[in-house]
Amino acid sequence: MKILVSGAGGKTGQAVIQALAGRGVAVRPFLRRSLSIPNTSEPVIGDMTHPDDWQRAMSGIDKVYHICPNMHPDEVEIGRLALAAAREAGVRHFVYHSVLHPQIEAMPHHWRKMRVEEALIESGLPFTILQPTAYMQNIRANWESIIQTGKFMIPYPVTTQISLVDLMDVAEAAAIVMTETGHAGAIYELVGTIPLSQVEMARMMGEVNGRATNVHEIDLQTWQANAQKANLPPHAIESLLKMFRHYAAHGLVGNPTILHHLLQRKPTTLSACIRRW
């Protein structure tokens, strides 16, 4: 069995490859640039917006795990190119890494994934769609600052309710779906926790690191200025600002039952995930 993982250089792609390796499966990675990734072979270096690169990547492949670069403005076209190449190559199972609640038009990067889901359903390919919520690991980018200052800074109200998931649980679920039968035609929401307020998250952080942690809301103008200084692309800034506004109004609420069923165990808690760091 030959599996292609697109977006293999990112944290999600590498986690999925590691989980597949744990099941004895080697992967062909589709990468934007040359990168040494364990448990892979026959890497394809290319551009997801080029159909010829997709054709090279799909050659001889049985199954595909497709991850588009985060918030890519051309995700819909990239998805269509991937599907066209998969049909031409006779791929037997196409798994799409989507997002929780892709039907929310107010968040453009979610909405684009819904359009790809639609194209996948209409493609005629055997498919599975995975819809993970926000990763617990997203907090890790600011973990050193949180430990040092005792402050958890967020660009939406501290009462905002968000369900999280451990990336390692997502990767394990992906490996299960890719290597076991019975998942064709399924759409799975991958949620690890009940909805948690930001205050609850900060309390859990403090319990793990042994220092009281307080959550503070920063205004969107300050967040935007910091993002621009960090050279975040304009389209990404715009998408994230819309996401933050939606979070402020509605949160991101999911249910862990499906992931529990897939893993045959309770999903990893936020506290357990942080302890691994």
Summarize the structure.
It contains eleven helices and 13 strands.
Q: In CATH's first tier, which class of the domain at 3-132 and 166-190 and 254-267 applies?
A: Alpha Beta
Helix content: 40-55%
Head-to-tail CA distance between termini: 34 Å
- The overall pLDDT average reads 97
Global structural class? alpha/beta
CATH superfamily of the domain at 3-132 and 166-190 and 254-267: NAD(P)-binding Rossmann-like Domain
Assigned CATH architecture of the domain at 3-132 and 166-190 and 254-267:
3-Layer(aba) Sandwich
What are the segments in which pLDDT stays under 50 over at least 5 consecutive residues? none
What does this molecule look like?
It is built from 11 helices and 13 strands. It is α/β, with parallel strands linked by helices. The strands form 4 sheets. It has a 7-stranded parallel β-sheet, with helices on both faces. A two-stranded parallel ribbon has the order 7-10. A two-stranded parallel ribbon has the order 8-13. Helix 2 crosses helix 3 (75-89) and helix 7 (198-209) packs across helix 11. The longest helix is centred in the C-terminal third of the chain and has 17 residues, at 234-250.
Topology:
Blueprint: E1 3-6, H1 11-21, E2 27-31, E3 44-45, H2 51-58, E4 63-66, H3 75-89, E5 93-97, H4 108-122, E6 127-132, E7 134-135, H5 143-149, E8 151-154, E9 161-162, E10 164-165, H6 167-179, E11 186-190, E12 196-197, H7 198-209, E13 214-217, H8 220-229, H9 234-250, H10 257-263, H11 270-276
Parallel strand pairs: 1-2, 1-4, 2-3, 4-5, 5-6, 6-11, 7-10, 8-13
Antiparallel strand pairs: 9-12
